[in-house]
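Subject: sequence -> structure tokens, single chain

Hey, anyone have a minute? Need the predicted structure for the following. Not urgent.
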Amino acid sequence: MKKITINIILVFCLYIPTKSQNTQDNVIKRMTNDIKYLASDELEGRKIGSKSEKLAAEYIINRFKEKNLLPKGEDGYIQTFQASVNIHPHSNKKKKITGINVIGLMNNNQDQTIVIGAHFDHLGYGGNNSLHTEKEIHNGADDNASGVSILINLIDQLKDNKLYNYLFIGFSGEEEGLLGSSYYAKNPTIDLEKVRFMINFDMVGRLNQKNELAINGVGTSSKWNKLLESSNKFKFKLIKSDPGIGPSDHTSFYLQNIPVLHFFTGQHEDYHKPSDDIEKINFIGMFNIMEYVDNIIEKSIKIKTFDFQETVNDTSITPKFTVTLGIMPDYLFNEKGIRVDGVSKNKTAYKYGVKKGDIIIQMGNVQTLDMMKYMEALSLFNKKDSTSIIIQRNKETIILPIVFQ
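Reply:
Had a minute. Here:
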């Protein structure tokens, strides 16, 4: 790995001085220290079941202790869980692993609790989910040391806010399929009937020049839209999506009929690669997202009844598929279709000429209007099947015959 240098991006985000500059500087210094350690080579990518996962868990526990959170796991701050994972993406052979959730409670003796979560595991030296071909440490600064750092530093923001109890959870096993959050939601250490809502931070370290912030799960309560807009003092360009089901840990709580929000600053070319390092983190953006969530929580107390809604086009089962195109979708794209944010070399899309910026509007007979439809389309095919995809490239519509690898 190359030597890491820290470059705090100052130009990427609007700054509104609601806190003193000294406070902002101190918080950013703590955020920097969090990510510098969690995304260091020493932690070897924080893969579930590894020694580095335990080191990361110990770090979070110590930060929880510093902030006087009560242990709320099954063994102090820890909740362990067992899981089986594929040894190889093309093999049905599995191995058993033990994962760790880290759980701390700020008890304000209130009737309702807000759950705040972020996964701390990543890909280790690569493996099944890596988009990098060689064995190398995947530090995961954005994915998801950034989310863990916001979670930890939000504790200080909320300590004088006695409106709710606050349960903070660092999940493991997210990269293998939401293992830790799913286990917790089925084996909770508090009464989930008294959870008002759940907030999830996953990949929140790359706020861009347009100040675009994706928020998923907005349809899980009728109260979210108005609350998100009224709390938006930083003038984020909000890219909202309704479904409660998505590729992160909020899904596990949505399936327990709890309103959820997932905060996300978008995909990038370093996703699931060794290059996801600290020098590319936008710390002021992280600070502003933390303040925004603090605002949302504070304003939410004025809402008497925080209802839960099932979201349109949700199913309890995400479509299963055995083939991929080998693209990186642009999750900040807010129009019809799947915009390509990156193409993996030597994969199907690369072989047949799909380019970054293309918008996939149809695969076979399925119009790929959104990610769920895209996954449904993929689920219809197996390796060596042939079909066509329809893409929009600038103002041109192109039909590309393909064969899945």
